[in-house]
Amino acid sequence: MNKRLNPIPKNLMFALDIGTRSVVGILSKKEGDKYVVVDHEMMAHPDRAMFDGQIHDIGKVTAVVKAVVEKIEDRNGFKLEQAAIAAAGRSLKTERATVDMEIDVTKEIDKILTDSVDMQAIQMAQKNLSTKEKSSSDYYCVGFSVVNYYLDQNMILNPIGHRGGTLSVEIIATFLPHIVVDSLYSVVHRAGLEVMNLTLEPIAAMNVAIPKNLRLLNLALVDVGAGTSDIAISSGGSVVSYGMVSLAGDEITEKMAQTYLLDFNMAEALKIELINKEQHEFVDILGLKHSLSTTEIMKEIDTTIKTITKEIADNLLELNKKAPSAVFCIGGGSQIPNFTEYLAEALGLSKERVVIKSVDQLDILSFETSTLHGPEFITPIGIGVTAFEERDQDFIQVNVNETAIRLFNTKPLHVSDALILTGYNARSLISERGESYTVTIDGSEKTIRGDYGEPARILVNGALAALDTRINHKDQIVVIAAAKGGKRRVHLKEIVNLGSSIHLEGQEIKCIEAVSVNGIHRTGEYTIGENDIIETIGVKTAKDLFKLVELDPSQFTLLNGGTPLDEEDAIRFGEKYHYKKKEQKSVISETVSQEIESDHLQVIINGEPIIITKKTSEVVFVDVFNHIDFDLTKPKGILNIKLNGERAKYTDLLKHGDIIDIHWKN
């Protein structure tokens, strides 16, 4: 006859830890800041119904859960109707993925672009995982971290603000298979309970071992179970990475079984006693008795412990990219002697930085029943604590473009998480330029790039949002895909500077007289078409400039600054140019020149050599008019006088070999 049970008081919470070796049930309540354990029950699985945290035989696991529930109900007289549970961290799947995205080299990279390429990488990791696992199961992404960004194949820490043609990202993403969640729900329902909260075991353990006020620090939690060692890492206020190593306590048990010829259960019992006794007596499967010290047994399993801790350290370093500031170890496997010391050594930390976190050290905990001890009960306690803090928030439901989806609420959720779950194409968020085309200008090809497209728009409950916008239960998300830009409409005056000019001796000279397109004269308003051939008519070379200003290239040199130009050198718009008379060879022999140099002066006037007799020790510019046929009394315009290419004054002193220009300028 069934005992009549009372409804459970509303202040009580029932938590179930459905583990590989056993099921732990904890009944607790919250009083102020304290969590009070009212009752607890632990029962081992009689058969191997679970492997590495995954339920394989739902019926057998349900039977154990029912037994645990009934014992707690009988002792307390309450009918348990709901349970808080946790998915095993060892069920998490970690996958790497790299994605390359072609981007507009003329546009600066912004956060929208980096978020989009991150999202593509997560989707790629999800696809790779499904292929590798040969499963069509869906996966929840419960976290990811960027390993590296690359811009045009070069590693870059932060691409925002840079430009390039290809942006790449390598990520590590962590996923939880739907089947794990579904099987847990099935067992709980068959046991006559409803799931009132679901979390991840590493998060539950984190919530008591490394509370939120400590997560600004870079800390690691390592849960050493039977089949696997689970890792969770905190930094910047949240849990940032998860990992799993498929080596744990069972490897040590198996080593002891092989060494001493014991069955698995006998070896497991001997392993547990290593932390409690110094001397051990046991009988192997042949009936032989053994009496060994803990030290002697530890020598046989020392290499196995080092192998496990090395694997954990390597995985932790890969996820965190460096050793964390400290490591907290939980789970029964972490209690084996030397475990924390070897892990510290493998991480390059002092042994004081790697410690076991036990239930005894939890200040937030008190007991109305027998006290729990050891690190193996951290997770079941954490499941209850997490349920109090996050009641009814295991999943949230949102709508994406009117499609309802459910998200596993293990971390702060963003718009990108919802889009990943729906399989939204991240490339649809990036606007593309319109089609480009080329034209030819004076023999050189020029590319006319297309117009920029309209960027994607994301709305959350009608308000403009972004991929990293936080989302909550019942949010309405609308995504309007980016629109591609059109072919750019360009006028002739936009690519040919019709008003371009240069300055020659201070005078502005227009360089382009006319423009033809495909052999037809066009104005600046003409709309350019693909493959148009554009020719400008005007000053293009030094030779063109000489011709325009009627200078003889054989007599003058064109200068840009102090650099002389050849006739075929191109003229550069906006520059300042000068010209000077080329030096002429003297028709007077060197001997004669030497003879007259003492009392005569030889100069070149308008290209002709002239000898001036010195009447005094100095000859000035005005003296040359006494030696040439140039009538100053009958002006024929403005008198232009130059000495060695520069404007001259009448009082300038002359020296042997000077070049003089004198002419009327209209």
What does this structure look like?
With 666 residues, this protein is of the alpha+beta class. The strands form eleven sheets. A five-stranded mixed β-sheet has the order 16-15-14-19-20, with helices on both faces. A five-stranded mixed β-sheet has the order 23-22-28-26-27, covered by helices on one side. Strands 25-24-33-31-32 form a five-stranded mixed β-sheet, with no helix packed on it.
What Rg, in angstroms, do the CA atoms define? Answer: 44 Å
Return residue spans where pLDDT drops below 50 for at least 5 consecutive residues.
586-596
User: Can you summarize the main beta sheet?
Assistant: 5 strands, mixed
Going by helix content, strand content and strand pairing, the class is alpha+beta
Strand tally: 41
So what's the oligomer here? Answer: single chain
Count of structural domains = 4
Physical arrangement of strands within the biggest beta sheet: 16-15-14-19-20
What topology emerges from the helices and strands here?
Layout: E1 6-7, E2 12-18, E3 22-31, E4 34-44, E5 50-51, E6 54-55, H1 58-76, E7 78-79, E8 82-87, E9 93-102, H2 111-132, E10 139-151, E11 154-156, E12 166-177, H3 178-190, E13 194-200, H4 201-209, E14 219-224, E15 229-235, E16 238-245, H5 249-260, H6 264-273, E17 279-283, E18 289-293, H7 294-320, E19 326-330, H8 339-347, E20 354-356, E21 365-367, H9 378-389, E22 395-400, E23 403-408, H10 415-422, E24 437-441, E25 444-448, E26 457-460, E27 463-465, E28 476-480, H11 492-495, E29 501-504, E30 507-510, E31 512-517, E32 520-521, E33 533-538, H12 542-549, E34 556-560, E35 563-565, E36 576-581, H13 590-596, E37 600-605, E38 608-613, E39 638-643, E40 646-647, E41 659-665
Parallel strand pairs: 1-7, 4-21, 8-13, 14-19, 19-20, 22-28, 24-33, 29-36, 37-41
Antiparallel strand pairs: 2-3, 3-4, 5-6, 9-12, 10-11, 10-12, 14-15, 15-16, 17-18, 22-23, 24-25, 26-27, 26-28, 29-30, 31-32, 31-33, 34-35, 34-36, 37-38, 39-40, 39-41
Helix pairs in contact: 1-3, 2-10, 4-9, 5-6, 5-7, 7-8
